[in-house]
């Protein structure tokens, strides 16, 4: 029972971290609204736009295509997560215009931690954006470094803490 409670707390903590990451990554639409979460009114930060993250990620896929097959695994992960989020958004674009709404709804339904949830897709898209940003900045700042070195450095700094050893092997040379 204690273990299950700790796992639930860890999951809530990870979701809060992900929401903070998204607020930093996404410009949002500037709206503020009152939302009831577990009978407590909470003032939200500006919403994170679903279309904004989809647009950024689609552009990122084009950049990764230009880099070549070195980052094929990352590209495929991004594409899969974009598709999952896009499918939900297309079902009701006005309802799912905000990432906050998507995450809140999945948390209330108890599906946020499921492998194929949009919440997980959003978290991994945010992490992929951070990885790619780091990678591209390093490519510009250290053109003398090899792509392999920069990818490994970017991976270690951004994604490695969230991956198991099997996933980590995909980023090794």
Automatic annotation (TrEMBL):
It comes from Miscanthus lutarioriparius. Signal peptide: none annotated. Residues 50-172 form the Glycolipid transfer protein domain. Coiled coil: none annotated. This is Glycolipid transfer protein domain-containing protein. It comes from the Eukaryota. GO terms for cellular component: cytosol; membrane. Pfam families: GLTP. GO terms for molecular function: ceramide 1-phosphate binding; ceramide 1-phosphate transfer activity. InterPro entries: GLTP_sf (IPR036497), Glycolipid_transfer_prot_dom (IPR014830).
């Amino acid at each position: 029972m204690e273990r299950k409670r700790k796992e639930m707390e860890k999951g809530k903590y990870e979701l809060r971290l992900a929401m903070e990451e998204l607020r930093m990554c996404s410009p949002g639409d500037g709206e503020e609204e009152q939302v009831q979460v577990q009978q407590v009114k909470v003032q939200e930060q500006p919403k994170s736009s679903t279309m904004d993250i989809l647009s950024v990620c689609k552009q990122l896929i084009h950049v990764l295509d230009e880099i070549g097959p070195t980052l094929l695994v990352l590209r495929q992960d991004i594409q899969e997560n974009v598709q999952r989020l896009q499918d939900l958004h297309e079902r009701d674009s006005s309802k799912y215009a905000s990432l906050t709404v998507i995450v809140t709804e999945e948390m209330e339904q108890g599906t946020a931690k499921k492998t194929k949830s949009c919440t997980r897709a959003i978290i991994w898209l945010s992490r992929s954006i951070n990885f790619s940003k780091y990678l591209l900045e390093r490519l510009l700042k250290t053109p003398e470094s090899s792509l392999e070195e920069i990818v490994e450095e970017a991976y270690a700094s951004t994604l490695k803490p969230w991956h198991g050893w099997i996933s980590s092997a995909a980023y090794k040379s």
